[in-house]
Amino acid sequence: MSEYGTVQKSALKIKGLGNISAGKKKKKKDKESKHRLEQVVTSQNEEEVKTKKAYVDKRTPAQMAFDKMQEKRQMERILNKASKTHKHRVEDFNRHLDTLTEHYDIPKVSWTK
């Protein structure tokens, strides 16, 4: 047992911590540092706004007219679809199926014939 006589029996000590029971120290909030940080952020935002160039539309008049007409047609389609209820859609679909020829009907399959 003399070999183990010099062994330290207490808890391990980590460098830099000092007392373990002290726990973590809370940092004090510095109002001035917050204020400085806000100023830096706002100044950066102002610089970004100044450096951004205005959006330039590089489309030709024909392209702009084309886009305008497409948007207009799309709005008409949306309004047309929104105006019908489900019941009206089903009725229209049934009318369409009635106008089709019998070629599209499912043939009856029977094992007896």
How is this structure best described in words?
The chain is mainly alpha-helical and 113 residues long. It has helices at 31-51, 61-83, 86-99. The protein contains 3 helices and no strands. It is elongated.
Hey, roughly how much beta strand do the residues contain?
under 5%
Care to count the β-strands?
A: 0
Helix residue percentage: 40-55%
Low-pLDDT windows of residues: none
Radius of gyration: 40 Å
Described by strand count, sense and barrel closure, the largest sheet is: none
How do the helices and strands follow one another from N- to C-terminus?
HHH
Mean pLDDT: 80
Distance between the termini: 104 Å
Alpha-beta classification: mainly alpha
Indicate the overall shape. Answer: elongated
Q: Count the DSSP helices.
A: 3
InterPro entries: FAM32A (IPR013865)
Protein name: Family with sequence similarity 32 member A
GO cellular component, one term: nucleolus
Pfam families: FAM32A
